[in-house]
Amino acid sequence: MRLGAGFAVLGLTCALASGCAQVRRVAVDDPQRPPHDLAVLLPDSDGTVGHATVSNASGTTDLSEARAATRISRNQAPSAATVLTEADVQREFGDALSALPPAPQTFTLHFQFESENLTPESRALVTATLQAVKARPVPDVLVVGHTDTTGSATLNFQLALRRAQTVRALLVAAGLDESAVAVASHGEAQPLVPTPDNTYEARNRRVLITVR
Questions:
Q1: pLDDT of 212 over the 90 cut
Q2: Rounded CA gap, 11 and 38, in Å?
Q3: Torsions phi, psi of 80, nearest 5?
Q4: Exposed, middle or buried: residue 47 (CB in 10 Å: 0-12, 13-18, 19+)?
Q5: Neighbours of 74 (CB within 10 A)
Q6: Model-level pTM?
Q7: pLDDT value of position 46
């Protein structure tokens, strides 16, 4: 399994999944599991390493560095953590890792105050976003608009939606299929930088693009 930083479990089969949390807790008392498993904490593609806690009725082992591993048995506590080499990981998990889809990429574009106009710096990022999208065999893009806390919540929701639609239009005009891009608005509800109401904050005037 993978959550935040990668987490892999190998028994008779290897299971991998994706997510966004930085802490993963895994219980391994399932009687259907193979008698011995190997759990390994893998870094994300950007090098980020999260944290995993592997536990059963007999004990717990924490994994907190890249390629940290523990062996798991239903009748014994998980073994003390050891660190595998990259060659070990490839030997045990190479086939499963190569079958994983690319990790999602995110891009943040900022906007001028009370406007659907991108800042010059953010307009330059549109090209990088398009390159990331076109590198995917079947791209799936989510564009979410945000505002700072100046003005009413209702108007900010509408402004954030227009910002998301502006970015979507730029992507479509550059050749991306309309059906590949979804838009949403969080208005002022999820600021990057928490502020009191009616506070000017340029970092909160943004659109977050997730490319999957």
A1: no
A2: 6
A3: -60, 145
A4: exposed
A5: 16
A6: 0.62
A7: 67
